[in-house]
From TrEMBL:
Comp. bias intervals (Basic and acidic residues): 949-969, 977-986
UniProt GO molecular function: signaling receptor activity
Keyword DNA-binding recorded: no
Topology versus the membrane: Single-pass type I membrane protein
InterPro entries, A to Z: Leu-rich_rpt, Leu-rich_rpt_typical-subtyp, LRR_dom_sf, TIR_dom, Toll_tir_struct_dom_sf
Protein name per Swiss-Prot or TrEMBL: TIR domain-containing protein
Chain intervals for the UniProt region annotation (Disordered): 942-986
Origin species: Culter alburnus
Domain TIR: 795-940
Main location: membrane
Length: 986
């Protein structure tokens, strides 16, 4: 059952990891090292409380994983279960205090586990039980005070165990838990609280290196043969440890024994033990003067292990103040290193104390109190000495011929002193010298003969001095020099022939000086060999275009640094500034304030692979299309904090080789993914601290970062939304962004087209209807006609008369006397409209306040807009309210063609009875007029809604009128059919 559950868990973890691999290439807390092929991952400064969360999305292909400087305190069980391919796991510098016993399960291939610098005070006995392949375990700087006897029992392949800087007290308990580690080679127990080496078990025979320094050992208390297999043994800084504790101890296999700052007497040690003298480090054993050292030499030469040679002699920290001539003449020949560092010596006396040491190769006299080096031309020469170091002294001056006694030196280190003066002939005779270090001194001048004898010199380091000028021919004899470091000085001027003679120079460092310009002629002399040129932090600045490039002839230069020019950067980058650098692979322009980059700035850099532009712009930067058009070999571009707001696809169009792109701390709120799709080899893009918008303009970018399987987008899950505080870029809502825009655009366009087509037609056909509706609405809004409608049976007038002013005589002389004389109440606009009231409101009130509307139709009536409005209002009341309110009176015949223009009038006539005033040519005018007035009065008396009896009366009248018309008499009551119209003419 347990095996089945385990298999199921493994399959589930593998499936989840494959899903992540397929759908995401961003990690919540970690980053993948560039070009590691999904194998090396680093998780720094993570805020998650447990490591399982931090590494949950790391690919199962990982072989190296580092989780460092995080807030995690607990390592959960099976935290790395899905990472079965790990060979190196580093969990250093966290706050881990507890580790679950199953934390490292399924890590059978792990070889290195680093748990240093945590707060671990206890480890379960089974915590390492699954690490069968582990070869290195580092538990340095924790709080362990005890170890379980089975803690390391399963680590059968362990070779290195580092337990330094803990609180271990029991050496016996520790030996018990490592006794079966047959592969263990190195054990470090320094800086613990061990007081004795009492033991109940033996050390593994394989153990070759044991470090017990910085403990509280006051006695050993171990068997005489306990350390018989150890080859390197360190008891340093156990100041209570005495010679007596070593009596009889078997140390015959010791190759290196260090007893610094103990109470051991070296003379007694050599008597009490079988240690070989040349294996002892004599540092810190109180050998203060020449007498003690001479005695030591005599003892070494005449010891029962008689030998004629010693490889190394370490005499550090013995408080030696001076050495007499021939101090070491009685010593066996030293063939390797003599180290006299960390003493109190004030003079070298031209190394006379080394008389007799004809095979010594290296001498170190670092960290002493030397103040000057005197001439040594008359001293016996030490032809065997190849390396000499005077670092970390107080040397102020070097006299002429100071190294005449060591003519075969190949390495001379005079750095980190206070040398202010060096004689012209100080280095005279050093024709074999290969490396000379004079850095970190106070030199102000170097002369044209300072280095003239150094014909074999390959490396000259003059960094961090006070040199202001490089004079002509200073290096003229250094034809083999390949590295010249002049950085960190105060150089303001390079003379025209300053670099003459440097026929092999490959690396030239002039950074952190005060150069204001670059001379093409000066550097051009180095064009055949120079590969690295460092001009960082000088005072180079351009205010106008320069015609010639300072690098015009430097076709072999591979690395150029122009970072951080003082005080405000380069400012203006000339158009052809980099012309000639056809082989350049790395260009650094960080921390400048360049106003702008021209489209042709980088045109000549066809071999460029690395370009850094971080902090190189002043304000908002705009990169022109085609600026990188020739950089097809560029694989890393860093453009952090440049104030970039947008990129166009044309900017990166030709960067087909680009693998790493840093855009951190720019002003971009969006990024077009088509730009990224054109970068076919891109594997890493960093956009942290950019104010990316969580809006629809970035919906494609969000989807792209979560689905792209090739490109790493580091710390994607930590990028917040600047425009939506508290939200994260990786999961902001994009649903509203994926609408079918094409459909919506088609719908809008189609609707707009239809409206443009219909509006003119509707305007012609429905103009008066709209106008009527508008005015009715205004009247309704003013509560003018609502009150009239509610009181339909209480009309104020029997009829409203609509007429044109041209027909006013007929209205006043004919219509008014005949109707008002018959007790009809008429509404006339010039007489009955309310003064001061809007004319439209008056018309609406008149139409709806009268039982009928009489339209006196004539040519003038048809031409009047107000008359047309009045008949329209009455006709709408007729059609929409189904009330018989409209009476048409034609004063004159109206031709069909003319009436058709007023289609609303014609439409009314097709459905309503109308009357025509008898003309003068009528056969019986008086009879016709009488009939006209009777018909009109009869129409006015009828109700608006009507009834069956009235309808029958109207039908009888109509038949009678038809008969009269057949007799030739005037009849003006007519109902048209659907297919024809009748107009009664005089």
């Amino acid at each position: 059952m347990a095996a089945s559950a385990c298999r199921e868990l493994i399959l589930k973890a593998a499936f989840m990891c494959l899903l992540k691999l397929a759908f995401s290439y961003s990690f919540r807390s970690c980053t993948e090292d560039a070009d590691s092929n999904h194998k090396i991952f680093t998780c720094i400064k993570c805020h998650e409380p447990d490591i399982a969360t931090i590494v949950s999305d790391v690919y199962p292909t990982a072989t190296n994983l580092t989780v460092s400087r995080s807030n995690t305190t607990y390592v959960q069980g099976r935290s790395f279960y899905h990472l079965s391919n790990l060979t190196s796991l580093v969990l250093d510098s966290n706050f881990i205090s507890k580790i679950h016993k199953d934390a490292f399960n399924n890590l059978q291939q792990l070889k290195t586990l680093n748990l240093s610098c945590n707060n671990i005070s206890f480890l379960h006995r089974d915590v390492f039980s699954d690490l069968h392949s582990l070869t290195e375990l580092i538990l340095e700087s924790n709080k362990l005070n005890n170890t379980d006897m089975f803690l390391f029992s399963k680590l059968t392949n362990l070779k290195t165990l580092d337990l330094r800087r803990n609180r271990l007290k029991s050496f016996s308990a520790l030996v018990e838990c490592i006794t079966n580690l047959s592969s263990l080679i190195k054990l470090d127990l320094s800086n613990n609280k061990l007081t004795t080496l009492n033991h109940s078990h033996r050390l593994p025979e394989s153990l070759a290196s044991l470090n017990l320094s910085y403990n509280n050992l006051h006695k050993l208390g171990c068997d005489k043969s306990f350390l018989m297999y150890v080859k390197e043994l360190d008891f340093s800084d156990n100041n209570k440890l005495s010679s007596e504790t070593f009596r009889g101890l078997n140390l015959e296999n010791i190759m290196y024994l260090r007893l610094r700052f103990t109470d051991v007497c070296v003379f007694k040690l050599l008597i009490y033990t079988n240690v070989r003298p040349w294996s002892v480090d004599f540092s810190g054993l109180k050998l203060k003067d020449s007498r003690a050292l001479s005695s030591l030499c005599y003892l070494l030469r005449h010891h029962h292990h008689k030998t004629q040679h010693i490889h190394n002699m370490y005499l550090q920290a013995n408080s030696i103040k001076a050495l007499k001539n021939n101090t070491f003449c009685n010593c066996p020949n030293i063939t390797g290193i003599m180290d006299l560092s960390l003493n109190d010596m004030k003079t070298t006396v031209c190394l006379r104390f080394l008389h007799g040491q004809y095979q010594l190769e290296s001498l170190k006299m670092e960290h002493n109190h030397l103040t000057k080096l005197l001439p040594c031309s008359k001293t016996k020469k030490l032809y065997s000495l190849r390396s000499l170091s005077y670092r970390y002294n107080r040397i102020l001056q070097v006299k002429g011929f100071a190294f005449s006694n060591t003519p075969k030196l190949t390495n001379l280190e005079l750095n980190i002193n206070i040398i202010a003066y060096m004689d012209h002939k100080a280095l005279h005779g050093l024709k074999d010298l290969v490396t000379l270090r004079l850095d970190n001194n106070l030199l102000t001048d170097v002369y044209n003969d300072s280095f003239e004898d150094l014909t074999s010199l390959k490396t000259l380091n003059l960094r961090n001095n006070q040199i202001a000028v490089i004079f002509n021919y200073t290096f003229h004899s250094l034809s083999n020099l390949t590295i010249l470091d002049l950085g960190g000085n105060k150089i303001t001027q390079l003379k025209p022939h300053a670099f003459d003679g440097l026929h092999s120079l490959a690396n030239l460092y002039l950074d952190r000086n005060r150069l204001k310009e670059i001379d093409s002629g000066l550097f051009g002399k180095l064009h055949a060999t120079l590969k690295v040129l460092d001009l960082e932090a000088n005072h180079i600045v351009y205010f106008r275009e320069h015609a010639l490039s300072p690098f015009i002839n430097m076709s072999r230069l591979l690395d150029l640094k122009l970072d951080a020019q003082e005080p405000n950067g380069i400012n203006l980058l000339p158009r052809a500034f980099f012309r000639g650098l056809t082989s350049l692979k790395s260009l650094y322009l960080t921390n400048n304030h360049i106003i702008g980059f021209g489209a042709e700035t980088f045109d000549d850099l066809k071999s460029l692979e690395l370009l850094t532009l971080d902090n190189s712009c002043a304000g908002i930067a705009q990169l022109y299309p085609g600026i990188f058009k020739n950089l097809r070999k560029l694989n890393k571009l860093s453009a952090e904090n440049m104030g970039i707001q947008t990129f166009s696809k044309e900017v990166f169009g030709n960067l087909t080789g680009l693998k790493t792109l840093h855009l951190n701390r720019n002003a971009m709120i969006s990024l077009d993914i088509s730009l990224l799709d054109s970068l076919t080899n891109l594997t890493y893009i960093d956009m942290r601290s950019c104010p990316l918008s969580c809006g629809c303009q970035n919906s494609d970018l969000q989807n792209w970062t979560l689905t792209n399987k090739k490109l790493q987008f580091p710390y994607l899950f930590n990028i917040t939304c600047q425009d939506h505080p508290g939200s994260y870029f990786h999961n902001f809502d994009t649903n509203v962004c994926y609408l079918d825009i094409e459909l919506y655009l088609f719908s809008l366009t189609f609707t707009f087209t239809i409206l443009l087509t219909l509006i003119p037609f509707l305007y012609v056909r429905l103009y008066w209807k709209f106008k009527y509706g508008y005015y009715v609405f205004r009247s309704w809004f003013g509560e003018q006609w609502r009150r009239l409608r509610d009181q339909e049976e209480k009309y104020k007038y029997d009829a409203f008369v609509s007429y044109n002013s041209a027909d006013e005589d007929w209205v006043m002389e004919q219509l008014l006397p005949n109707l008002e004389g018959s007790c009809f109440r008429l509404c006339l606009h010039h007489r009955d409209f309310e003064l001061g009231r809007d004319i439209v409101d008056n018309i609406v009130a008149a139409v709806y306040g009268s039982r009928k509307t009489i339209c006196v139709v004539s040519q003038s009536f048809l031409r009047s807009e107000w008359c047309s409005l009045e008949i329209q209002l009455a006709s709408y009341r007729l059609f929409q309210e189904m009330q018989d309110v409209l009476l048409l009176v034609f004063l004159e015949p109206i031709p069909k063609r003319q009436l058709s223009t007023y289609h609303r009038m014609r439409k009314v006539m097709l459905k309503k009875t109308y009357l025509q005033w008898p003309g003068s040519n009528c056969s019986d005018p008086s009879s016709a007029k009488e009939l006209f007035w009777n018909q009109l009065k009869r129409a006015l008396r009828s109700s608006n809604t009507g009834n069956q009896e009235e309808q029958k009366m109207e039908e009888n009248d109509q038949r009678r009128q038809e008969k009269d018309m057949e007799k030739g008499e005037y009849f003006a009551n007519q109902t048209p059919t659907d297919k024809e119209e009748y107009y009664l003419m005089p």
